[in-house]
Amino acid sequence: MRLQSSVFSFLFAGLVTATGFDCAHINLDGIKYDLSPLGGVHSLYHIEETEDYVVNTTYVLNICNILKGAAIRGNLKCGTSKNICGFEYRDAVDGSDSETKAFPIAGLDHLGHGAKDPEITRLKQLDPDREGLRVRLGGGQYLDDKKTKKDAGAVIEFQCDPTRSGLEGISTEEDTAEEQLRAKEDGDESGDKSRSLRFQSFGPADNESYVLKLDWKTRYACDDYLSSKKGGSSNHWGFFTWFIVILFLCISAYLIFGSWLNYNRYGARGWDLLPHGDTIRDVPYILQDWFRRVVNTLQGTGSRGGYSAV
What we know:
Keywords: Autophagy, Cytoplasmic vesicle, Disulfide bond, Golgi apparatus, Membrane, Mitochondrion, Protein transport, Signal, Transmembrane, Transmembrane helix, Transport. One of its GO terms (cellular component) is mitochondrial membrane. By secondary structure, the chain is of the alpha+beta class. It is built from 6 helices and 13 strands. The strands form 4 sheets. A 5-stranded mixed sheet has the order 9-10-11-13-12. It has a 4-stranded antiparallel sheet with strand order 3-4-7-8, covered by helices on one side. The chain starts with a helix and ends in an 11-residue tail after the last helix.
């Protein structure tokens, strides 16, 4: 049974990559982006207070892979094949009532049905002064207050910030409760303002589907990040490495072919096998003589008027 579960998990992961959002290979308008460093399971939260209820919602996401076990929190299950899930805890102010629910926001349905239908847009197409990517993902469902099922999705704006990796201040499963309490005391419902991943809103859109909106500041969303990284020393070292490899292969081919020719034509052995073996043996002496001449040239003839002592 464990083997079957592992196989199914592997197939789910491969299916998501094949049919959904490939965070490591994004190419728009000839510009390449790699958001894979932002992969992994991350969580953020939002607290909303009304006269009757306090609603605490934790959002768990993995933009590069399915959530697997992270889609299960206690008795709440969202769907292990999802990429983004929400876990809502609604408590009455007077303590008389408490409700909990989990809802998928983006990803494949169970057994691989459905699709995330990713839509990726450069922010410069929407605003020339902004740089980054807007990623829209679907495949979720939300049960509204009228118990009506609505489609759900997410819109994540990856905003270019060269000073941020994108992982600053992101909550882990262990510190979420502590951060929630601190945020509530500070009056900051979306958490520490220094965090790179921030909650914006969750609610019905124009088409009546529910949309989770997130902002994610990171250097990996900058248009020139990959090109500047490749345009540095890596390209020069790459050319130099290839030059050395090709030169080594040419010299090796010359020596091997010359040795084979000397063996078959002249029956040569040992050093005589090598082409121009005498010259190769004399190389150390040639270099020594050349080095001596260079030293003598640099030192000059001193005060002897150009004559050397006999």
